[in-house]
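Field: sequence (string)
Field: structure_tokens (string)

Example rows 1 and 2, in order.
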Amino acid sequence: MRYFDSSAWMRRLESEAVLPEGFQAAAASMDFVPAEKPDAGKQNMNLAVIRLEEPTVSFAGVFTRNAFPGWPVVAGRRLLDAPAVQGLLVNNRVANVGAAGGLEDSQRLSRLTAELSGAEGPYFQSSTGVIGWKLPITEMEAVLPGLCEAPSDDSLLPFARAIMTTDAWPKIRSSNCGGGRIVATAKGAGMVEPDMATMLAFFLTDVDIPRDIARRMLPEVVANTFNRISIDGEMSTSDTVLFFSSRRKPYPGDAEFRRSLTETAAALSEDVVRNGEGCGHVIKITVSGLDDEIKAASIARSIANAPLTKTAVRGNDPNVGRIIQALGAACGGSGLDLNRDVLELSIGDEAIYGKGRFLLNEEKEASLIEYLKKRELPVPPLGWPPHEECVQVTITLGDGRSSATVIGSDLSEEYVKINADYRT
């Protein structure tokens, strides 16, 4: 197992956070008192900007399928029709969902950021935080001039820190691609069962990928990475993935770029789960042997989301009956005939079920307990991930060629505490 102390993890994060050519980033903060809940007292909000040195025609986005989207999502969908864009403005603390005048506020912030930056193209605007509160637009407008004039960071790290809410640490991943790089950051720790992305994720590259290819490739990559994670089975109103290219480096071809983009997205989406609210274990469920990948993913997701599976893993209790009942429920609910004589189930390297029967004994029970304990994460979390291990559950249901993996987390007391006290 690979373990990190804070220094080793930070060195890795800083090396991955170097911005691709043609990008700048900056962050600022301010205080406000929410009009809807003044007794909550003074709140701190961060604003962060990513700007391209020149407008780009190569950009793409994927947004939540939640039927009650945040106003920045509504504005962002419209902005996809723009001929070119210049960057992105993000705020945390207030999600701007359902608030009166929220669409106008989002568009005003986008327009003002472009004006203050002297930009030729418009800016996307994203918000995350409490649903129902109105953006403190006056306080935000007061901070924007300094933010837009601030010297650029060479690193994405200050931006990644600024967009955090209940995240315990910033999340950044990168990959080399031809002669260029892809660098991405995400925030998200709760209300995460995407139907497109995580809560917020932003991909930057200096590789000159054609716009039409980026818009075809991004949803495909999202479907197999961010759409295959779940922390709590809750789909956010603000889920957004945005992609920008500064077009500085030659395009190496679809296969090379897809590999790099998928590698970056897969690592980043797993980081989101590892940093999930109250996460004590990352659980990776792989279901194979079916003829339908979508059905395999649905079954894996049902097991990953099953409360009794999650709590058993939280307690380092290899109660395999929890997994079997969740599997049986998922198969029954989807109309899939479960053949017990073909079914194979393992946790890590230990075979748990096969040839029509459980394969359990005292020695295996002790081995599984130790396996779970070694993959436990501290709750509450440290300011960095001490390791990148996960609990691997592998299920084979037949001889079909399709398989799917869903990454989830356990369910701890800390998750309940965070969400019970989220606004107070």
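Row 2 begins here:
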Amino acid sequence: MHVVPVSATLQFLGAAGTVTGSMHLLTVGGHRVLLDCGLFQGVKELRLRNWSERIADEASIDAVVLSHAHIDHSGYLPLLARQRFRGPVYCTPGTADLLAVVLPDAARLQEEDAERANRRGYSKHRPALPLYGVADAQAALRLAQPRSYGDSFPVAGGVTATLRRAGHILGAATVDLALDGVRLVFSGDVGRYDRPILRDPEPVPAADVLLLESTYGDRTHPPGAEDDLARIVSASARRGGVVLVPAFAVDRTQELLWMLHRLENAGRVPALPVYIDSPMAIEVTDIYRRHPEDYDAEMAQALASGDRPFATRHLHVARTVEESKAINAVPGPAVIISSSGMATGGRILHHLAQRLPDPRTTVLLAGFQAEGTRGRALEEGATELKMFGQTVPVRAAVERIDALSAHADCGDILRWLGGLERPPRVTYLVHGEPDGARGLADAIGKRYGWNVKIAADGETVELNP
């Protein structure tokens, strides 16, 4: 007797045409599974979507499978929990530990921003409200169910999943889903090869349908991140300035500390005071130490030898608000690393407000800056920024080191795709702005001749042949 395959569809609910808001709804028969559950960031038009209904009947979602802990991939979970979702959230152990830090932190920031807006009266809303609170974040955390790399596990409706190292940040994974006669692979965010601390991205053997990120699909990262960092820090030190780094608390801060540690030991930069002004980054660094399953050989050897790879000679950490405010009195030369990485919120805003008017300051952009963020504005040469209801002039120098990005560039992605034993029937490009997606589609077509489509926001596609 001929068996009719169960209908399977995939709907793109975020990170289609943009790099934020990663969320894709898999429907198999009567079962619904979310791949990622991220917040939109950047331009106001996108951020407002966080406040509107993104998923119909949220309580009927059977499960969520997370690729990693970055807020644009996980930050909608507290809202999902508030909307009566009670299913499991599958992720790696590293991701589960990071979520326990990043979700409450995101909630606190939103509560603090709303309170500040109400106190100072610069919000159009009366009263200004946070998108969600710490209690919602804690409810979401109780749903996490860690799964190890390489272990297959049931998700819902006969769907099984296998997580493999993506090399992007600690705990980042590709998601390999076996459906009824269809193998769906979600790349999450693919990391880079031959980078410090983490293992390289692991190949995925096969896919019928591939969901692939395209953040840097039209670019090649230049080599020499350490050379650029040495040049920028040394030049700033000579003029007595401060290097101010908006840095993601997860991965970028740890990689910067690793590089500064190496550069100091090699005598390539002076041993300057380095301030880490991000309680979350401090906690995340401790989490990195607890997950050797993600280490590359160099990191494992450094720790085995008793080295402290995340500690510069004059390292200061600011845990409290008072310690953070005290950094305002720090003269140059110095390095201040603070979150958030795109300057969308957090303590970095206070440092920018104070130091952007000083021409001795260097703002170092150390990762992708999404459209509509203050980081993108600085990257594009803004002469002023709006923060805390006031306009701040930009007289600081602005530098960018693309080589510090944790995202694969076009060449890295093509290399990762080479691990597939056969071409996918179709590849959908997500998590990229239009230029990145078009560039990667062209590159895949030229290298492999595959069937590649750029995902459209809100589009639903059939997965069955």
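free_text_note (row 2): The chain has two domains: 8-219+410-462, 225-404.
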